[in-house]
């Protein structure tokens, strides 16, 4: 859908309110016409998180179906939020879902999780470093947007 491409451009330029409006309009038409792919819910949540509306993002992300290509991205953001507020139990619950969804990243996420919550020493695999770097990048972006 061309509207979602436009919304994606606005997301990348930081105009989250406009992107959210566009995705909201698309969501209404998609819900009437076809099964949702999760793209609209993922994009809405992404806009909301960058607008400081974390609780709304969490609710909307629950609509991303497990079979969606956006499911793992959504789980990563949910894990990131739990990690940010240091909610060990929630992070661990989400981590289990991530491991079930993407076995290729499971080991790296588990390692990052153990380091984050001080269950492991400082030795980190290269893949875990990549995952940790991505989480740190997202944290920096979220902090920049929230000020």
Task: Please sum up the structure shown.
76% of the residues lie in helices and 0% in strands. The protein is mainly α.
Task: Provide the fold topology.
Layout: H1 2-12, H2 16-33, H3 39-50, H4 54-61, H5 71-84, H6 88-101, H7 103-116, H8 126-146
Helix pairs in contact: 1-2, 1-3, 2-3, 3-4, 5-6, 6-7, 7-8
Task: Work out the number of β strands.
Answer: 0
Q: Over all CA atoms, what is the radius of gyration?
A: 16 Å
* DSSP summary: helix tally: 8
The structure class reads mainly alpha
Tell me, what's the shape? elongated
- Unreliable runs, pLDDT <50, ≥5 residues? none
Mean pLDDT: 80
* Tally of discrete structural domains: 2
Percentage of residues in strands = under 5%
> How far do the termini sit from each other?
32 Å
Give the proportion of residues in helices. Answer: over 70%
Let me know the largest β-sheet. Answer: none
* String of helices and strands: HHHHHHHH
Question: Can you walk through the features of this model?
Answer:
With 147 residues, this protein is mainly α. It folds into 2 domains: 1-69, Serine Threonine Protein Phosphatase 5, Tetratricopeptide repeat (Alpha Horseshoe); 71-147, no CATH class. It is built from 8 helices and no strands. Helix 3 runs antiparallel to helix 4 (54-61). The radius of gyration is 16 Å and the shape is elongated.
